Automatic annotation (TrEMBL):
This is HAD family hydrolase. GO terms for molecular function: phosphoglycolate phosphatase activity. It comes from the Bacteria. Keywords: Hydrolase. One of its GO terms (biological process) is DNA repair.
Length: 279
């Protein structure tokens, strides 16, 4: 073999080696990229998607038609302390914690102390001793709870009422006997009331649920704000008398529990997976 041919053969061998090394590098890079993508997808599905296991149940306005009664109780409670507050003024705030309602209507008052606290306490007394006896269940409340239990969902009562109020409300909703053993939250379980997420977070903890494992049933924009801030989706009912634009943060809106029950097979409750919202 001539010197020229030797040099050509050597060049070919070197080129082949470089091609082989390049192919090896490409394969390594492709594997690393695939692993990175796989980890990313795993993180996404692991942290944002979960099997639906539990239902967080708001009670006021959701399972019992109590929102107007609460507004009337506020009007009467304010009047007892010399404040002329109209039904139309207080009604839009029903669903908020009482400690937040008071200063919104009378800015110089605190809902946590002094006269403002007395007004809030008076409102609770009126619900328990006066208005509670005339409350009606929302259409389909009992049948919906029965269906949810039949489907095997873990139910958690997510209420901001006091224990005594909650007892009255559950009886009025005609579901008290169906929820005797289920975990329950009350006003004692939240440092901050709705629309802060504290109550929903407490309900998740009591139910041993992650945000992506639960959906909340509610009726006010404050339910939606609180739940979404805790990473939980909401199915909203119109029976609380808030319009659809105010309930737009919900994943679905139905007239009442009966309407959800009638459309159960096509509802978010039949999805095998739910998505946790990032607070």
């Amino acid at each position: 073999m001539t010197q020229a041919r030797k040099e050509i053969a050597q060049d070919i061998d070197e080129a082949a080696g470089e091609i082989q090394q390049g192919a090896s590098d490409l394969a390594s890079n492709a594997q690393a990229t695939a692993e990175k993508l796989g980890n990313t997808l795993s993180d996404f599905t692991g942290s944002n998607h979960s099997t639906l296991k539990g239902i967080l149940l708001d009670i006021d306005g959701t399972l019992v038609l109590s929102n107007d009664a609460h507004a009337h109780a506020w009007v009467e409670a304010f009047a007892a302390f010399g404040y002329d507050i109209k039904f139309e003024q207080v009604r839009p705030f029903i669903g908020m914690g009482g400690d937040q309602v008071v200063p919104r209507l009378v800015p110089e008052l605190s809902g946590e102390e002094g006269v403002g606290k007395q007004i809030a306490d008076r409102r609770k007394e009126l619900i328990i001793n006066k208005f509670g006896a005339d409350l009606s269940p929302a259409p389909g409340s009992r049948d919906l709870i029965l269906r949810l239990k039949q489907e095997g969902f873990k139910l958690v009562v997510a209420s901001s009422a006091t224990s005594e109020e909650l007892s009255v409300l559950l009886k009025a909703a005609q579901v008290d006997d169906l929820l005797t053993e289920e975990p329950k939250t009350t006003s004692d379980d939240a440092d901050q009331s709705k629309p802060a997420p504290d109550l929903v977070q407490s309900a998740l903890k009591k139910g041993k649920l992650e945000p992506g494992q639960a959906i909340m049933l509610g009726d006010t924009p404050y339910d939606i704000q609180a739940a979404n801030a805790a990473g939980v989706n909401v199915i909203a009912f119109r029976c609380g008398d808030f319009d659809d634009s105010q309930l737009s943060g919900a994943v679905a809106i139905y007239d009442n529990p009966a309407d959800l029950l009638a459309q159960f097979a096509r509802s978010p409750l039949t999805d095998s997976e739910v998505v946790a919202i990032k607070p």
